[in-house]
What we know:
seven-stranded mixed sheet, 26 strands, alpha+beta
Amino acid sequence: MNQPVVKERGGPSIVWLIPIITALLGAWLIVHTLTDKGPLVTITFRTAEGIEVNKTRIKYKSLDIGLVEGVRFSKDFSRVEVRARLSKEAAHFLRRDTRFWVVRPTLSARGISGLGTLLSGSYIEIEPGQGAPQALFVGLESAPVVNADEAGKPITLMARKLGSIDRGSLIHYQGIVAGEVLGYEMANDYRSVLIHAFVKPPFDRLVRSNTRFWSASGLDLSVGPDGMRVKTESLQALLFGGIAFDTPDGQDSGPDDITGLVFTLHDDQKAIQDQAYAAKIRYVLFFEDSVRGLTVGAPVEFKGIKVGSVIDVRLEYDERTTAFRIPVVVELEPERILERGERMKKAPREAFQALVKRGLRARLQTGNLLTGQLFVDLDMQPKAPIRLAGAGRTEPELPTVQGNFEQMTTQVKGIVDKLDKVDIVAIGAELQSTLKGTASVANSPGLDKTIADLGASLASLRSILHKVDERAEPITVNLEQALAAARDALEKSKATMAAVDGMLAPESPMHDGAVRLTQELSATARAIRSLVELLERSPQSLLFGRKPTGEKQ
C-alpha cells in the first residue's frame, strides 16, 4: 500500500485573503462614513419646547439638511444646548451671521404662521449668513421679520412710549403696506423707546433724512362742522398697531443716506403740524376761577383760532402771604399770526405787550359741555383793567378776566345773596294772614246775599236797557226835528237882529228898547245853542235828566 506524500507549500495561504479584504472594506466604509458625515453644530435656546432628539429636523427652504442628535442644559442651566448634525453640503452655511430659530404655530400681527407644524411637528429653520466659520450659535426665540437677503432700508425710530406697536406691526405709506417693525428696546436714558423697523422696496427710496413718521394705531376721531369723522390706516393697524410716514416734496428734501440716523415717532399727524412752528414764547396766567377741566395740552385760542397751548398747570404756595396760587404756563406761537409787518416776527414779545395795552386779556372758556374741558381764550377787552398777580416768575404775565360762566355764577350768587336778605318768614306770615281774611270773606253768609242782590240789579238794568232800545228810534227822530227847528229859529233871530240893527240909529228914541230887545234875543240864542250842544252830546238827557257837574256825560 502506497503512503501519502506530504509536501510543504511555499508562500502565504489564500485563506488569509478573506479577512484582509474584510478589513480593507471595513476601513473604507469607516473612512467613507467619516468623510461623508456633516459637521456638528451647537445651538442654544431659552427653552427646548417642540424639540425632540432624532426627530426634530433642521430645514432650509423646506428641505431637510440636518437632524437633532442631543439636547442638554448649559453649564449654568440658564439655556438649553441643542446638538445637531448637518449634511455635508450645508457645511458652508455655518458662518458668524447665520441664524437659527424654532418654527412653531404662532399668532402675531402678521397673522398665523407655522400651521404646517401641527401635523409634522416643530423644526429648526436656518438662515445662512456671512463671516468666519463657526460651530456655536445663539438661536432666535422667534422668526425674523425680514430675511437677511431681502432688499430695503432698516430704520430706527425713537418714541416717548411704545403704545400698541409690537413686533410685526405694519408701516404704511399712503395707506399701502411699506414695511414692518422688527423689534424694540429701551433707550439708554430709559425715558424713551427705540423701535427697529424695515422699509421694503420701492418705498425705501422715499425714506430720506426729512421723512416724518407718526403712530397710526387706533382711531382718529374728530368732530367738525360736517359732523363726526373716524379715520384709521387699516383694520390691522387698529388691532395690532401701525406706523405711517411721509416725505415732504420740494427743494428741502433731505439726503438719501440715513445711516445712523434716528427718526422721531410722533404721536399723530397733528403733532407734526404743531411742531412746524419753531418760534415759541411763554407767558404765565393767574386765574381766580377754578381750573378744573384745564389740562396740559389744552389749546390757547384767539377768535377761535389756535395760537398756542397750555404746557403746565400746578398749585403754588407763597410762604410770605400764606396763600395759594395756580400759575398756568402757556406757550404762544407767533408764527400762527399773520401781520402786515415784521414786528410780530422780529419782536413778538413786544408785539404782545402792545396788544395788552390795547386790551388783550385771557379767560377760561368751556370747550366741551359733555366733558367739561376748558381752554384759554384770548380776547380784546379794552374796558377791562390790567389785573396782574406780580408773583415774580421768570415768565412774563398776561392779565386775566373772569370767564362767561364765572360771570354768570357771580351774578347768580348776587341774586341768591339778595334773596337771603329777604324776610321770607314775615312774608309768609302776611300771606297766610291775607289768605285767612280772603277765606273768611269768601265763606261769610253775607256774600251769598250780595251775589243775589247783584244778580237782581243786573236783571233790572237789562230790563231798562231793553225799554230804551225800543224807544230809541222815535226819540232820535224827534230830537233831529227839534234840532232842525232850533237851528232855523237861531238863523231867523240872527237875521232879525241884523235888520233891527240896520233900521235903528243910535240917536233914535227906540234905540234903548232895541238894545234891550237885542240883548234878550242874544240870551235866548245862547240858551238855544246850549240846549242844542247838550242834545248833541247827550240825547238821553231828555229821559234821564242832566247829570251834575263833574260827572262824565
